[in-house]
Amino acid sequence: MNDNQNFVNLKENLKNCLNFFAEKLASIRSNRVTTSIVENIMVECYGSNAPLKTMANLVLQPPNVIIVEPWDPSILNDISRAIESSNIGVTPQKDVKFLRLVFPSLTQERRDQLIKLTNSEKEACRVEIKKHRETFMKKVQSEFNDKTISEDQKIYLEKEGQKEIDKANENADTLTNKKISELNEF
């Protein structure tokens, strides 16, 4: 049925929204350095843009160093330029065949900035969730007006849709709280 398809679409859109939010949070640096901080940096080379993870091997050397070893050493300067222009707060150290990214410990000021960034990303996620909710509710109302679903089905779908929206907002809060606690670790 078409009304079930709207509900399935809502769930899929919410899932995609939360996955995108989780990726955004993973790219925000905490005291735990991970390769996800740099893997989606867009590098301009060979006449196009591509994420760093598609053109280099990324190796984590605990506690705070990432080695970027491009498969083609001739693009080392392009990768270095892309990393410098991103706002990850580190300057690449060039070697002959690779870059070394040494991440300093976070200062309290930088932690506060990253917490603000995390909260602003959460708000952007909530706005997307709200847009998906409005779209879903309009479709359900439209189907009711077109008499393709009954009033009972409309009420049921609205209630179930709201449950999914609430669950998505809770998941966004959970992801945010987890990231903030990571940022506050020393």
Protein described:
This protein has 186 residues and is α+β, with helices and mostly antiparallel strands. It folds into 2 domains: 2-26 and 107-184, Ribosome-recycling factor (Topoisomerase I, Chain A, domain 4, Orthogonal Bundle), CATH 1.10.132.20; 35-102, 2-Layer Sandwich (Gyrase A, domain 2). 58% of the residues lie in helices and 14% in strands. It has 4 helices and 6 strands. The protein has helices at 2-26, 76-85, 108-145, 151-184; strands at 42-45, 48-51, 56-61, 65-70, 93-94, 99-102. The protein has a 4-stranded antiparallel sheet with strand order 3-4-6-5, covered by helices on one side. A two-stranded antiparallel ribbon has the order 1-2. A hairpin with a 4-residue loop joins strand 5 and strand 6. Helix 1 (2-26) packs antiparallel against helix 3 (108-145), helix 1 (2-26) runs parallel beside helix 4 (151-184) and helix 3 runs antiparallel to helix 4 (151-184). The longest helix is centred in the C-terminal third of the chain and has 38 residues, at 108-145. It is elongated, with a radius of gyration of 22 Å. The N and C termini lie far apart (53 Å).
Straight-line N-to-C gap? 53 Å
- CATH-defined architecture of the largest domain: Orthogonal Bundle
Number of alpha- plus pi-helical segments? 4
Q: Strand content of the residues, in percent?
A: 5-15%
How many separate domains? 2
Helix content, binned percent: 55-70%
Alpha carbon gyration radius: 22 Å
Question: Which strands sit side by side, in order, in the main sheet?
Answer: 3-4-6-5
DSSP E strands, number: 6
* Helix and strand sequence: HEEEEHEEHH
Q: Tell me the structural class.
A: alpha+beta
CATH superfamily of the largest domain: Ribosome-recycling factor
Rounded mean pLDDT score: 88
